[in-house]
Amino acid sequence: MSKLIPVTQPFLPELNEFTPYLEEIWGNRWLTNNGPFHQRLEKELGKYLGVRHVSLFNNATIALITSLQALKISGEVITTPYSFVATSHSILWNGLVPVFVDIDPNTFNIDPKKIEAAITPKTSAIMPVHCYSNPCDVEAIEAIADKHGLKVIYDAAHAFGVNYKGQSLLNYGDLSILSFHATKVFNTFEGGAVISPDAETKLQIDRLKNFGIEDELTVTAVGINGKMSEINAAFGLVQLKYIAQAIEQRKVIDHHYREKLAEVEGIRVPELSKDSNSNYSYFPILVESSYSLTRDELYEKLKKNNILSRRYFYPLISNMSMYKGLESASVAHLPYANETSNKVLCIPIFNEMEIDDVNLIIDLIRSI
């Protein structure tokens, strides 16, 4: 049997790179609660990403929940159904109502032309997602938000290191949320971050992620435990040394896929944005009706050959039991999101992937 090829694989530097950090953590006995490694990682990420105010979290879901709380969002939040469930779950956790609008079939991101029609007197925010590291139409979204007095919170889980028109994509909106889960380009095992526009907002975010504690004797808000540990932060510092190299390695694989799959009838490879770079976090393809297999048949075929692809995002959030009763979740209301969800397949891409494995996957898709 051939070896197993996962859809993604965490980037793990050599263990001896991490050992001195562990020894220092053990030595100073500071394991969490804004320790020195936590502070260093926030500072270094700010430099690398081109942002000023980074708040580290234990995961991106808690970061999303806290961001909605920090901005005092109420009522309805307009969002996309084409995302991981954490996006909409964070809205429900705050007692809010997600309102789904359809996606652009070319970018997979929320379609700004559909947002305005979904605004009601109860709408207080928009939560778009930069899907597969492809930037949303941030100018159009923020023009709508300014016109109607809405907050914009970007789920930027896929957008680590992405620059748009010469500046960090994370500087758009009122807040941006990153994920550092093990499946992401940059990871801290588990983790995430909120990017704030100013020091005052960062202070508020930092208090909320620490139970709402203001000082030793004062708790001023119903916060949560969202703190990142020193071990996670230290791992992030090690990863940051090699992240540029890792992204370049993924770029080579991405371009190889694009060149070889472009000629396959019935396989559509989405284009990369011309206004931004990419971190090559995923490699989605769309399996069209002109291909000789359905998307699910191709998924099973690859699986039988020890190649683990992922139908990402499927099922669509709006079709899940806790959401499908919403008026905005109807299939007729979301034709492009449903169509894309039924066609998409993310095939393996990670920085240490061998070119022979890439060619094996290409050959299997082409031969079918």
TrEMBL record:
<dbReference type="InterPro" id="IPR000653">
    <property type="entry name" value="DegT/StrS_aminotransferase"/>
</dbReference>
<keyword id="KW-0032">Aminotransferase</keyword>
<keyword id="KW-0663">Pyridoxal phosphate</keyword>
<dbReference type="Pfam" id="PF01041">
    <property type="entry name" value="DegT_DnrJ_EryC1"/>
</dbReference>
<keyword id="KW-0808">Transferase</keyword>
<dbReference type="InterPro" id="IPR015421">
    <property type="entry name" value="PyrdxlP-dep_Trfase_major"/>
</dbReference>
<dbReference type="InterPro" id="IPR015424">
    <property type="entry name" value="PyrdxlP-dep_Trfase"/>
</dbReference>
<comment type="similarity">
    <text>Belongs to the DegT/DnrJ/EryC1 family.</text>
</comment>
<dbReference type="GO" id="GO:0019179">
    <property type="term" value="F:dTDP-4-amino-4,6-dideoxy-D-glucose transaminase activity"/>
</dbReference>
<protein>
    <submittedName>
        <fullName>dTDP-4-amino-4,6-dideoxy-D-glucose aminotransferase VioA</fullName>
        <ecNumber>2.6.1.33</ecNumber>
    </submittedName>
</protein>
